[in-house]
Amino acid sequence: MHHVADYLVAVFAVVLAVAGWFLYRHIVAIVWGIISFILLLYSTGVIVALNTTLIALILLRAVYDRYRDQILLIFIILTIMKMVILTEYYINEKLVYIYYFIDGIFIVFSILIIYLYRFKPLKIERLMPILVLTSAFVYPEFTPVSVLAGTLAALIDVSFVLVALVAVVNFYYLTALGQYLSFLPPLVLILSYIATYKRVLYLSVNPPIGWLYSWLGGRYKVIRLLGVGGFSYVLLVKFKKSMYAVKILRFADDQGAPLAGDENILYLFGQEMNRYLELKSYHVVRAYEVYLPAVGYKDIGQYMRNPPYILLEYMDGGTLRDLLRAKKRLPAGYVAELFRQLAQGLYDIHRRNIIHLDIKPENILFTKDRKVAKIGDMGIAKVAIGGRVQSSFMSPAYAAPEVKNGEASFSSDIYSLGCVIYEALTGINPNVFVENGYAIPPPSAYAADVPPWMDEIILKMLDLDPAKRPTVADLVSFIASIYGR
């Protein structure tokens, strides 16, 4: 080596090999990392910079799945350049012969990794402390390490101040050593960070994991995946210091039928979500913003770049389903308060002439202390016309009997809410009795702490005749009268 001591080459080689494991997390990555380590140890002169660049390209391939073909092309071009240089090195015997054997294995392995790797969720956070520390001591020959560090630092939202501080330390270190081009690694570190931060809209055309670590619409930092439904993805995002949930309409459903890929469905989604924006209730998850494209999507890449979404309040206390999994059933006093809050939320929904269509424990969300419950997931709600609506999308486990005929009304939501409250009290979904031809027993038959008034109103909500169920206004008034006693 002309500029870098052998022990430093070994350090950088180890860091890059470890990075390969963290990014790919596969046994093949360990083998590739060992080969890369040996390759750098036997490199010299300009070959060090070329090999470091090739290794960095392989590492970036794990991150930027969307650029697979471009990375493969650049890798091939740089490999050809290296082979031309190696011809002169071979003639002048500048490298030991084992190097050429290792290099050949490295090239084959790398091309296979680029082409065959299937994108999966990254775990960049574990790698960053190593990369940040290494970036403070990067030599010009290892400048591609600065590219990798700057890009990954931006993707996990590391402060620009910290990145700039590392760049200053790197510049001071190289200048003190009298290194030529001492400005290059720190400059590349900062430029890589700037080129990535809030500019990467997706990493892969594989939704929803392709949005992880990116910025939705260039504004909202995607933190993690919250859930996947038949019609949508739900992501946790960050804007400034606040957290939100974003619900994205899927490009296609599980059977491949188009959703966001169909302009008619896209239009209906926009109508429903804009109506949701108008809904203001303390017991309904709040909607802040709706985004729809001006025209339909031509392909999945266009969809990933700017998907249709609605920005929602983030409820960090989990769902009623989570609570029931942990406790099986809840105390009657707690459920009574839950009942009051959900009835008020459903009243506010129906008052806007909207039928929810999907009341179930998964769609009842809590604040962190679990003292406030809200109705969420208005994704398949329809604006009711004449009090009735087509209901092919309701969750069957909590759907009213009339839903089997393909129609639902406001009373269908009452039935679903009755199922939810009954299950919260007893741990049993009352639809089990209906489906097997039995009359629904009162909740108190399974939970002795249930008061008579709850037995009475819940059984009315679960009446098989929609006309005999109370309205949500009746529920609110009844519960208020109980609390007023």
From TrEMBL:
GO molecular function, one term: protein serine/threonine kinase activity
Entry EC number(s): 2.7.11.1
Alphabetized UniProt keyword annotations: ATP-binding, Kinase, Membrane, Nucleotide-binding, Transferase, Transmembrane, Transmembrane helix
Pfam families, alphabetized: Pkinase
Domain of life: Archaea
InterPro entries in alphabetical order: Kinase-like_dom_sf, NEK_Ser/Thr_kinase, Prot_kinase_dom, Protein_kinase_ATP_BS, Ser/Thr_kinase_AS
Regions crossing the membrane: 7-24, 30-59, 71-91, 97-117, 124-142, 148-173, 180-202, 222-239
Entries under PROSITE patterns matching the protein: PROTEIN_KINASE_ATP (PS00107), PROTEIN_KINASE_DOM (PS50011), PROTEIN_KINASE_ST (PS00108)
Keyword Nuclease annotated: no
Residues covered by the Protein kinase domain: 220-479
Family affiliation: Belongs to the protein kinase superfamily. NEK Ser/Thr protein kinase family. NIMA subfamily.
Descriptive protein name: non-specific serine/threonine protein kinase
Organism annotation: Pyrobaculum oguniense (strain DSM 13380 / JCM 10595 / TE7)
